[in-house]
Design brief:
Distance between the termini: 51 Å
Radius of gyration: 23 Å
Helix content: 40-55%
Structural class: alpha/beta
Number of helices: 15
Largest sheet: 6 strands, mixed
Number of strands: 14
Strand order of the largest sheet: 9-12-11-10-13-14
Order of helices and strands: HEEEEEEEEHHHHHHHHHEHEHEHEHEEH
Length: 520
């Protein structure tokens, strides 16, 4: 956002966005659904379905090798996650994959390893087949695309550039002091800045279709509010630091209550188009995690009773007391248990789901996801929390590694807000099970940038050994090892010697090879 709006957090948030931009750039295409090449429809149906995608990757170097792959990201709005698929092409460049979907028409972000920075939006239809052929030129730019069902070519290929410009925009204005002003002034400022960015970069765009620009506007607006507006205390602290020379003092930030979130009325959350928007998932997470809103955990509560308590909190804020949004919220509540804790549904929860949704599509989706979690739960280890706040900064890593004598130690530096960190953990879940009962320990380290409550929730699904460092300990470790971002990793052998350090997850096969090499 421009310096006036949380440019206090602009540099920090931009670094965060850049860290996971590669991970999510194709997800930003999960935005709308075209009935034809230029038309965006306004309705969507939830369905526990499957779609098929086939295609061919052609490069100027002739026959393809088995190392070329296609990566696809699919938004699952009911089970509350984004699922990443990776399929290798054969020597003729062809690939084929069946994909679970949760809406009758889905859009996925697709790119190939030939040029991962050139992503495309591709339409999937439940029960149907999508075909896409991509040809690259000698510069590895996309030369030609043939896709069925047909889509507007500019909508398919240009949106990420526009979104990137809006994310990285800087104005020449100095940061505006907001931390000691009213919350209404802050919210009005946020609305103005978001509107300005949309006017500069989206409204004046001549390549995107009119219909698609409307959807992109919704995507950007929702994502910025989820990232910048929900955490009022955090944003105001960042604003203070960017507008004051003396950063040693801690300002008095106005306390907010639930009424602060009245801006949710502006989004019309009953709009079914949100089933196609990636940032909707961010917003749902922000709502569930917010301690001021205080939504109850669904647990084994019957769904009507849980919804009644939720509506007492949300109905005035979102502007309605009934509608499909509440069913999606309830489904997402179960999904948080499945995704965050990797904890299967209890028998009571299953009965509650069947009683409320019968044999409907939402129930089918939750049970399909539950079956996947049942398999993951078999290899999940418990999460063990270790407390070392008094250990001197220079002794932190030594203290941690020395605890695991005669073990290979794989250390993951991460944060709850880091999308690539969470995606890497998700990818490695099943592979980590291969090391069960072997002389290897997985250690996860974070700091105060990860809210403690959220951190405690997420580590249940991660398992392994966990450390929550002070900011001083964390900063020392990052500087000591020369890390500039996360996820970053340290690998020690059984003799407590550092063997490897690197930033960015290199993939399951590479990590398994590194660890197995030290177990021999």
């Amino acid at each position: 956002m421009e310096k006036g709006l949380l440019n206090s957090s602009q540099d920090i948030m931009t670094k965060i966005l850049k860290l996971h931009l590669l991970c999510i750039f194709c997800l930003l295409f999960l935005l709308s659904f075209n009935q034809s090449a230029d038309t965006v429809t306004d309705t969507s149906a939830i369905v526990a379905g499957t779609a098929k995608i086939t295609g061919r990757i052609a490069t100027p170097n002739g026959p393809n090798t088995d190392s070329i792959f296609v990566s696809m990201n699919v938004l699952h709005p009911i089970s509350g996650e984004t699922v990443k698929h990776k399929v290798f092409v054969d020597r003729s460049g062809k690939f084929s994959l069946d994909i679970d979907v949760e809406t009758d028409t889905s859009f996925i972000g697709l790119y190939s390893s030939v040029n991962p920075y050139k992503a495309l939006m591709v339409k999937l239809i439940n029960g149907g087949v999508t075909s896409i052929d991509i040809a690259y030129n000698s510069d590895l730019d996309i030369k030609n695309i043939e896709v069925t069902p047909a889509m507007n070519q500019n909508d398919m290929s240009q949106s990420i550039e526009v979104v990137g410009k809006m994310i990285e925009y800087r104005s020449d204005r100095a940061p505006e002091r907001l931390y000691d002003k009213s919350t209404d002034e802050f919210l009005n400022h946020a609305k103005t800045v978001v509107s300005k960015r949309l006017a500069i970069f989206l409204n004046n765009d001549t390549l995107l279709s009119k219909e698609f620009k409307g959807v992109l506007s919704k995507e950007f607006r929702l994502s910025m509010y989820a990232a910048h507006v929900f955490d009022y205390q955090g944003e105001m602290m960042l604003n203070y630091r960017s507008t004051n020379k003396d950063k040693s003092k801690k300002p008095e930030i106005q306390k907010i209550d639930r009424s602060y979130f009245h801006f949710l009325k502006d989004f019309n959350l009953n709009d079914p188009q949100y089933l196609r928007i990636f940032a909707f998932h961010d917003l749902q997470n922000a709502i569930f995690q917010n301690e001021i809103l205080g939504l109850p955990v669904i647990g084994e509560s019957d769904i009507p009773s849980w919804l009644a308590s939720v509506k007492v909190i949300l109905s005035d804020l979102v502007g309605f007391g009934d509608g499909p949004y509440y069913d999606i919220l309830a489904a997402n509540a179960f999904a948080r248990q499945l995704n965050e804790e990797v904890k299967p549904l209890t028998e009571k929860q299953k009965k509650n789901i069947v009683y409320y949704w019968k044999n409907g599509e939402i129930a089918k989706i939750l049970f399909r996801k539950n079956q996947q979690v049942v398999e993951l739960d078999k290899v999940k280890s418990p999460a063990i929390v270790n407390d070392i706040p008094t250990v001197p900064n220079a002794k932190v890593i030594e203290t941690i590694v020395s605890k695991y004598k005669n073990k290979v130690v794989f250390i993951d530096l991460w944060a709850t807000w880091c999308a690539p960190c969470l995606e890497a953990m998700k990818q490695f879940r099943s592979a980590k099970g291969d090391f069960r009962d072997k002389d290897v320990v997985f250690v996860y380290i974070t700091n105060g940038s990860s809210p403690r409550k959220l951190w405690g929730e997420k580590i249940k699904g991660i398992g392994g050994e966990h450390y929550y460092l002070t900011d001083a300990q964390w900063n020392y470790m990052m500087d000591h090892f020369g890390f500039e971002g996360i996820p970053s990793y340290l690998l020690y052998n059984k003799e407590d010697i550092l063997i490897n350090k690197f930033t960015a997850f290199p993939g399951n096969d590479a990590v398994k090879e590194m660890i197995n090499g030290l177990l021999k």
